[in-house]
């Protein structure tokens, strides 16, 4: 009988409405942070893929330039259908001040290929350069 007369404290077992609201708020904040992190990672993966495609295209343009025997100084431009644009600049490479003072049998050209595209309102660019040597037709003076 003693158990029937037990005093009931002012608080019963279970959770109050305020405790449930606080728990749901904490859960909502944690989920928001987790979703934001996942979303940022997906964007970064997409951007990394775009950079990879741009580098492969720039390498292909450099390879095409290297195969071109009639390489001439100047600039050419173009675009692909998926929004990537390219620009190729060919400059004569002279590692010395007076080109006529040195009669070397090769000519050097610096070939730079720049691939650009737009990602989320920002312009992105990848630039690759190489040095191409070709026979200049000149022979250094020497004993005949």
Give a structural overview.
This protein has one domain (17-135). Helix content is 35%, strand content 30%. The chain has one helix at residues 17-67, and strands spanning 74-79, 85-93, 106-119, 122-135. Strands 1-2-3-4 form a four-stranded antiparallel beta sheet. A hairpin with a 5-residue loop joins strand 1 and strand 2 (85-93). 6% of the residues are buried.
Largest sheet features: 4 strands, antiparallel
How many beta strands in the DSSP annotation? 4
As a percent range, the share of helical residues equals: 25-40%
Number of helices: 1
Multimeric organization: single chain
Characteristics:
alpha+beta; 30% strand; 4 strands; 1 helix; 144 residues
Blueprint (SSEs and pairs):
Elements: H1 17-67, E1 74-79, E2 85-93, E3 106-119, E4 122-135
Question: What would you say about this model in short?
Answer:
The protein has 144 residues and is of the alpha+beta class. The chain is built from 1 helix and 4 strands; from the N terminus they run αββββ.
């Amino acid at each position: 009988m003693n158990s029937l007369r037990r005093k009931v404290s002012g608080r019963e077992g279970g959770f109050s409405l305020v405790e449930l609201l606080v728990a749901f708020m904490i859960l909502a904040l944690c989920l928001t942070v987790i979703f934001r992190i996942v979303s940022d990672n997906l964007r970064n993966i997409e951007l990394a893929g775009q950079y990879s495609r741009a580098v492969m295209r720039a390498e292909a343009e450099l390879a095409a330039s290297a195969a071109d025997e009639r390489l001439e100084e100047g600039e050419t431009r173009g675009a692909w259908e998926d929004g990537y644009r390219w620009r190729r600049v060919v400059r004569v490479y002279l590692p010395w001040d007076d080109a006529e003072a040195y009669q070397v049998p090769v000519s050097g050209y610096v070939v730079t290929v720049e691939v650009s595209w737009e990602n989320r309102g920002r312009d992105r660019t990848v630039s690759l350069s190489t040095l191409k040597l070709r026979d200049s037709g000149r022979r250094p003076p020497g004993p005949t």
